[in-house]
Amino acid sequence: MSVVSVPVKELSLCVIAASPEALPKAQDWAQFFACPLNPLKPEDYFFHFHVEESRVYVRDREKRLLEIDFDENHLDYERKGHRGKNELVAKALGVAKGHRRILDLSVGLGIDSVFLTQLGFSVTGVERSPVLYALLKEAFAKTDKEYLKSYKLHHADALTFLKEQKGKLEIDAIYFDPMYPHKKKSALPKQEMVVFRDLVGHDDDAAEVLKEALTWPVQRVVVKRPIHAEELLPGVRHAYEGKVVRYDTYVVG
């Protein structure tokens, strides 16, 4: 695995190799994160990135687990009974217009990205969190699902990626699902999401990211929002509403 060091300055992170066989991969990820490998006092670190022969996962100091595995499907990666081109997100992205090449600016746990791929879209994903990127990269490498083999994953800040890659990628539509502030801890879902939010934080630059996305030579930019949230920026042409979320569509070209 070829990696470029990405210091994880804001996270208290170490890498734990479970066995001698897992050591080479663990060394690669420790180099990528620029963090300690098998420290003498792992309890001094809030996040532990565990590397085993057949899996990788993260635990925090409270022993909460975050793991991404597209084949085990515990986060509903394989959605049964979906409505294909009639799914709201497919309509929002312009499937009826022939839009197939999608740029996902905030892959996160990969749930929406994988679903878009399952629906037949060709997806290029961007994830800024180095830890989530590592989990995703390992999950894509491990999966047996053929439709995920062509997924293109990038580790980058969305705003920087948009500025540097404008005009270099053939993309029909952009999808953006920014993190929104969660005011009540009691509203947090299961343990994976607690760890996820601790790793990712909030997208304070979401409006700026959307503004830059709207300058791209694409047909549509779609922003996923809570059903009652205000528009991220004015100019929404269509809003596709579900029970708890909606997809705000900005028509660009």
From TrEMBL:
Subcellular location: Cytoplasm
Name of protein: Ribosomal RNA small subunit methyltransferase J
UniProt function note: Specifically methylates the guanosine in position 1516 of 16S rRNA.
GO MF assignments: methyltransferase activity
InterPro entries found in the cross-reference section: 16SrRNA_methylTrfase_J, SAM-dependent_MTases_sf
Assigned keywords, A-Z: Cytoplasm, Methyltransferase, rRNA processing, S-adenosyl-L-methionine, Transferase
Pfam family, one: SAM_MT
Primary location recorded for the protein, binned into one broad class: cytoplasm
BP term (GO), one: methylation
Catalysed reactions, as listed in the record: guanosine(1516) in 16S rRNA + S-adenosyl-L-methionine = N(2)-methylguanosine(1516) in 16S rRNA + S-adenosyl-L-homocysteine + H(+)
Enzyme category, top tier: transferase
Domain of life assignment: Bacteria
